[in-house]
Structure formats: C-alpha cells, structure tokens
C-alpha cells in the first residue's frame, strides 16, 4: 500500500503550506484527500486578491468566512469592487475573531465606505486601507494595540479628523497618509511614532512625535 505522506503532515505544517497559496488554490486542496478536506477551514491568514466579477469575489469570501472555524488573525482583500454591503457583514465576523492584521485595497472607480463595525476590531495591530471613505464613530476609544496604520488614498467623513484617529492609537510606530485633504493644520500626536510618510493637502503640519526617526 502506498503511503500518503502529504496527508500525514502535522496540522500546523499544513497551515504553513496553505497560507502560501492563493485562496482559490487553498480551497481546492479539499479534493486531495479526506484529511485535507477541511484543512483550509482553519488557516489563520486569509488573503483574497481578486480580479473576478464582483458577485464571484463576494461569493468566494462569503463561503470561506462561513465555513471557517478557528481564529482569523489576518484578512487581506485586494479587489476592483467596493463591495460595500458585503464588507459590512464580513467585518462582523472579523471583529468577533479578534483579527490582528487587516488590509483592504480597492482599485476601482468607487471608494469603499468603511462600516462602523471595523472599529470593533480592537485587537488590530496593523491596518491598511486604500480607496476608502472612513467615518469613525463618536464613541470610538481608539485602537490601543495598533502599531502600523496606512491610509491611501482616503477620505474622512462626518466629524472624523486624522488627529482623532491617530491620537487614539498610543502604540503607533509607523504611519502612512497619502492622497488626502485636511482643512487647516494637520496635528499628529503619537508618542511612540518612529516612521512617518505624508503626502496630501494641508496648510500646516504640527508634530508631537518625540521618538520619530524618519519622516
């Protein structure tokens, strides 16, 4: 009898293999053998880089999140579609999983409206948003564990200001802000910030960043 060495791999090694594959290929591993059937449903890093029609992208992400069990530590979506309604329900699932690394990049004509549920992801350590409209809830107390924040291009709506968002991240070490408009002075209060990249429209820049190394 031939021994199926691949199927006998430890679960943690299977996860390391699966996170290196495109998500569509990860799902296809379920046909390898019975022991691989559900292996993809527990990988902690989910990366979707889609050029498919919008309904196909949404269906793929929906199915993966519905059948996934275990922690989701990283979620990355690169899409040409804003997927506004879908993003809202995905954020509910991700916030319950105490996600640490979230990256949403949209390359289409329409910017994605970030749902308020994002601000329930309080375990975030890294947040990257591209082509997004951000409206921070008034009662938001900050991302207390966030180390990296990148926004490009982006727009703030409501009474949200860059100052309020950044000052609510006391552990922030790296900040990138590209292609934005700020009325008046841009005030950055970040006691642990080391790296700063800014390219946008603002009248003046005020930095309270005692640990800044590059900027």
From TrEMBL:
A Pfam match: LRR_At5g56370
Organism: Rhynchospora breviuscula
Family annotation (InterPro entries): F-box-like_dom_sf, F-box_dom, LRR_dom_sf, LRR_FXL15/At3g58940/PEG3-like
Entry protein name: F-box domain-containing protein
Phylogenetic placement of the source organism: Eukaryota, Viridiplantae, Streptophyta, Embryophyta, Tracheophyta
All residue ranges annotated as the F-box domain in the record: 3-51
Top-level taxon of the source organism: Eukaryota
């Amino acid at each position: 009898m031939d021994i199926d060495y691949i199927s006998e791999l430890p679960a943690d090694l299977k996860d390391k293999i699966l996170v290196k594959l495109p998500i569509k290929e990860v799902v296809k591993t379920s046909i390898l053998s019975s022991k691989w059937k559900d292996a993809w449903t527990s990988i902690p890093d989910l990366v979707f880089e889609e050029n498919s029609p919008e309904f196909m992208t949404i269906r793929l992400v929906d199915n993966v999140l519905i059948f996934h069990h275990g922690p989701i530590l990283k979620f990355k979506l690169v899409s040409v579609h804003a997927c506004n309604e879908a993003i809202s329900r995905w954020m509910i699932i991700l916030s319950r999983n105490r996600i640490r690394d979230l990256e949403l990049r949209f390359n289409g004509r329409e910017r994605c409206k970030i749902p308020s549920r994002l601000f329930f992801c309080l375990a975030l350590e890294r947040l990257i948003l591209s082509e997004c409209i951000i409206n921070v809830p008034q009662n938001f107390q900050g991302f207390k564990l966030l180390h990296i924040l990148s926004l490009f291009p982006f727009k703030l709506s409501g009474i949200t200001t860059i100052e309020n968002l950044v000052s609510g991240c006391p552990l922030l070490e790296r900040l990138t802000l590209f292609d934005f408009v700020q009325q008046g002075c841009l005030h950055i209060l970040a006691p642990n910030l080391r790296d700063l990249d800014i390219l946008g429209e603002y009248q003046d820049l005020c930095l309270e960043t005692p640990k800044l190394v590059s900027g």
